[in-house]
Each structure stands twice: as structure tokens, then as C-alpha cells.
Amino acid sequence: MQTIGVIGAGQMGSGIAQTIAQHGLKVLLTDRELAIAEESRAGIERALGKLVSRDKIAPAEAEATMGRITAVANVEPMAEAAMIIEAATEKEEIKQAIFEDAGKVLADEAILASNTSSIPITRMANWSPDPGRFIGLHFFNPVPVMGLIEVIPGLATNQDVTDRTMAFAHQLGKEVVLSQDEPGFVVNRILLPMINEAVFVLGQSTASIEDIDLGCRLGLNHPMGPLQLADFVGLDTCLDILRVIYRTTRDSKYRPAPLLVKYVEAGWLGRKSGRGFYDYS
Ligand code: CAA
Ligand code: NAD
């Protein structure tokens, strides 16, 4: 059975680990501290429990899935992994330290992938021991439910690494969009200006939070309004993505709305912190 390493056990790392394990592969999951990876594993168990209680999966499948996920204290056990996927906080300095660390244990043929939402793949590849085996593998939230993965080769990525990564994404039951290494890739380049504009609309008191979301849900048939979706993604992550794209492109379309900055400075990060545009407490 192939082993995949996942570094970063927040909402994305948890969803990625769950999805990979549900597709029969072994997962080693780590974070800054073992306790975070263990809590993530417990969260996956609760999510699978809900699926069992709704008759979506059999209890034996949930048990087998959990048996394939191990929380580990650091990257050392990932020396056995065929691929290591980084899904940590969207900050370059954090990712750089992770790639330097993971690079020390990466097996000879193994692939190092990043779930970054926006940071250039070619830049990050240079922080790894072999840029030819570095690639962007961008999942969507919630990972077990969303049908898409973007695959983003950097300038130096080997073709066989792109091919193997696309095959891996298909193995997880996802459709693949192949994107060039351009700021925001395909989907976030389109999504983030919408979310940002919704915060400008709110900041100008054009309408209430609820009405902005209602407008997009019923007027555009989106499953969530943009402010609810921003809370779901994480307001810190939205701000980080906008800042990366703005810094890279200098296109004013991506300048973060001042109100978004204010919310993040207040620690109102959305669902994960209990408060964002909505209250989740
Ligand atoms: N594991 C497996 N299945 C799960 C699950 C989990 N952890 N969580 C939910 N599901 C399943 C449910 O069982 C349910 O399945 P059925 O339809 O077969 O019953 C289905 O997912 C829908 O779940 P719910 O009924 O609980 O919730 P919902 O109908 O309100 O849908 C939602 C929730 C799927 C999140 C929907 O609101 C949605 O699509 N929202 C938009 C999400 C989106 O746009 N994501 C992309 C964000 S951008 C991004 O990810 C990129 C980036 O870099 C920022
Ligand atoms: P999150 O805040 O839920 O989780 C980030 C995790 O990274 C935390 O558990 C944190 O402890 C961990 N971390 C921080 N420093 C670390 C380190 N040095 N070593 C190991 N782990 C470390 O964020 P998230 O939403 O899961 O986002 C993670 C990545 O996925 C980001 O790059 C983000 O842009 C990307 N992404 C997010 C979404 C989304 O909708 N939230 C969608 C696609 C991609």
C-alpha cells in the first residue's frame, strides 16, 4: 500500500488526509505539534461517524479508513512516502521551512507537492532539494466533497511528475484542471476578486451581510454567498491569497478590502475561530 505524507493538519490537511485514506492509501499526518495532528485525526473520525450515521458509508469502511491514518510528531516517518503534500498556513516563511525540512527525508523518486492557494510553485520549488519533483496540487474545501483538483507544474517540474500527480488526483476521484504557474492559478484568480468585492460592498454599507449572501445565493445560484464562503475558507487565508496575488501582479483588482484586514486583525477568521462575518459560537 502506498504511503502519502500530509504536513499541516488544519481544515485542508484533515480533508486531504481523509480523502486519501478513503481511497485506500496510507496517510502520515503531521503539524507543528503532535496534539494538533491527533485532534485532526479525531475530527476525521467524527466526520466519518456522521457519514456512517447517515448511511453514506459502512461502519467497516470508516474503521478501515481510520486504520490507514497515523498522526506523527514530525516528517521523519515520511521517508517512506511516495508523495509528501504540504497543506500548512499560507505564509511563505512557514512553507519554506517545511520544504527544507521535508526535503531532507524525501525518498529518491518521491514527489513534494504544495496545496498552496496562491504562492508561485516555481519559487517554492527552489526551497526543495529537487525542483523537478516539486508541483502544485491544489485541493478545494471541503476536500472530501469537492470534485476538483488543480495541478500546477512549476517551470522546472518534470513531465513524469506532472503525469504521476494527475494520475494521483484521478485516483482520488477528482477532475483535474491543469494550470500554468500564474498568480492564483485558475479558480482563486476568479474567486478572490468576488469575495474581496463583497467585503467592499459591505464596507460601503450597500447592503447587510445577510443580503449580500442572499443576493449571490438566489441571484447567482451559488451554494454559499461570498461572505459565508470567505468565513468557510478562513478570512486570514483569503487575505493571504489576495496579498500574494496583489504583490505578484500589482493589479489593483486584488488590493485587499480594508474591512477584511480589520477582521483578520481582530482575530475574526471565520468558522475556524468561531467568528467572522457570522457568529459560529
Ligand atoms: N466527508 C465526506 N462527505 C461530506 C463531508 C465530509 N467531511 N462533509 C459533507 N459531506 C457530504 C455530505 O454527506 C453531503 O452528501 P450528500 O449530498 O450525498 O448527502 C454533502 O457533502 C453536502 O453536505 P451537507 O448536506 O452537510 O451540506 P450542504 O448541502 O449545505 O453543502 C457545501 C455544503 C458542500 C460546503 C456547499 O455549501 C458548498 O458547495 N459550498 C461552496 C464550497 C466552495 O465553494 N468551496 C471552494 C472554496 S475555495 C477553495 O477551496 C480554494 C482556495 O484555495 C481558497
Ligand atoms: P488552517 O489554518 O486550517 O490550517 C493550517 C495548519 O497549518 C494549522 O493546523 C497550523 O498549525 C499548520 N502549520 C502552521 N505552521 C506549520 C509548520 N511549521 N509545520 C506544520 N504545520 C504547520 O488553514 P487551511 O485552510 O487548512 O489552509 C492550509 C493551506 O491550504 C494554505 O496554503 C491554504 O492557502 C490552502 N488552501 C486553503 C483552502 C481553504 O478553503 N481554506 C482551500 C485550498 C487551499
Compact summary:
Helix content is 47%, strand content 13%. It has 281 residues and is an alpha/beta fold. Helix 6 (159-171) links the parallel strand 7 (148-153) and strand 8.
Q: In the CATH classification, which architecture of the largest domain applies?
A: 3-Layer(aba) Sandwich
CATH H level of the largest domain: which superfamily? NAD(P)-binding Rossmann-like Domain
The succession of helices and strands, N to C, reads EHEHHEEHEHEEHEHHHHH
Mean pLDDT: 97
Shape: globular
Q: Figure out the total of helices.
A: 11
Q: Tell me roughly what share of residues is in helical segments.
A: 40-55%
Question: Can you tell me the number of structural domains?
Answer: 2
Strand order, largest beta sheet: 3-2-1-4-5-6-7-8
The proportion of strand residues reads 5-15%
Give the end-to-end Cα distance, rounded to a whole number of Å: 41 Å
Tally of DSSP β-strands: 8
CATH topology of the largest domain: Rossmann fold
